[in-house]
Write a structure and sequence with these properties.
The chain is mostly beta strands. It is about 15% helix and about 45% strand. It starts with a strand and ends with a strand.
Amino acid sequence: MAPTIEDTGEFKGWKTWRNEAFEYAVAGPFYFTEDEQGSKCAFRVGPKHLNAGGVVHGGCMMTFADFALFAIAHDEMEGLQGVTVSFSSEFMRGPVLGDIVEARGEVLRAGGSLVFIRGILSVDGQACLNFSGTIKKLRRRH
């Protein structure tokens, strides 16, 4: 599915998948762009992202990392949809209200049907969560 370009706000010009209701409207919104270092994903922490301890809920961080898997692997997906078939993460730090959480990563291997990715979430250069995952490309049915 082709991403859309955000046309307002602090992430104006960044891409997102508005058709992903959970990632865009419920858990996010999450965004991605490309720069000289590759894919970069980000979101601004709001009150809805926090747990009772005042830091970003672990489920939100894992959801954002899953979003990042697909943004990082966007070119390798060849315009196809996909599903996450494995995901692993470790928490290191909890972002707080107002932080911009960023994700960067790399494709380790892209085959005919599987893409293997690893990455890290950070705030101001401090690691928050590392993650890895595998996406299965879904072939179009004729």
